[in-house]
Amino acid sequence: MNPNPIVHLQHLEGTNYAPVVEETLTQIGFFETVAPGARVFLKPNLTFPQFRPGVMTSLECLRAVTLCLRGRGYRVVIGEADSGGYNRFSIDEVFKGMGIDQLAAETGAEIANVSFTEREWLEVRAGWRTLRVPVPRMMLREIDAFITLPVPKIHMNTQVSMSIKNQWGCIQEPTERLKLHPYFAETMYEFNSRLPHAFSLIDGRFGLNRTGPMLGDVVDMNFLLGSNDLVAADRVCCRIMQIDEARVKYLQYFRSRGWWTPFENIRLNADLARFQKEKFYLVRKWTDYPGLICFNNAFLAWLGYHSPLAGFAHWLLYLFREPFYEYDKEKEKLRSGTKL
Hints:
Layout: E1 6-11, H1 18-27, H2 30-33, E2 39-44, H3 59-71, E3 75-80, H4 91-98, H5 100-107, E4 110-113, E5 119-126, E6 129-136, H6 137-141, E7 145-149, E8 153-155, E9 159-161, H7 174-180, H8 184-193, E10 198-209, E11 217-227, H9 230-241, H10 249-256, E12 267-268, H11 289-295, H12 298-305, H13 310-318, H14 327-336
């Protein structure tokens, strides 16, 4: 938590992120807080095997941030874990397919598939339970600063996905995330509160309305939102999306833990009405409810993802719901790889 949260908003002009990124990082105090030479971890949202607007961070945004930091003498790590949950896909393939490998080669940035870096066990208190969550040691011990690069989108289970939710993808094992779904807020609080010098740059060139995190209606929004406080970033973004923050359960959990500032004390540089487009909302199909139920109940999460009945349950569901991506193709890539 930053006691003096700043949120800086600027409109984008197409794909010309560079001047906006530079100005935003300056205004939110990044260059004052983090000295040149520091190792900075960039966490884009890469939740799909191929780039989709409104679903994933754009390469143009990631490139602008990387070039800005490298030009000022920072060491940059671009990192993400394997994704896909029950139907895992390799983030190494996404790095290649999006051109992130090439970006790293051009700029001297590092790339890290944090599913295969050294782990640290994060203890998370959730009611009477104490959970042990595998997270990348690198992100807690081996970097000097952290920048999350999410997109503003609706999420079928958490209602929204932005600065805080983006770190869910850092839990090293996708199947472990499924077990932890009922403890999402507690896990994200513990993890995000331990990140060193955490900043947010929300890539608002596109948003995702109606459903998510991988399917929905793409909205042209054309903004970049930066903040030195992850909760403040998400609260302001909720207002741009015209979503009541009081109905976002994970934000209210953060509030109960003290990571909160009166909204009038958040230092804003612009009238939010200038950045508002259509009102964002969530509509679920009946095929979304099995996942939602498992998200909120530990026993049902085990039954739906880890029990002997899990395979049959997913087969049955896919008779009625179109798969998000070509699961068999992605599994074949994993089987032919060397890391798994």
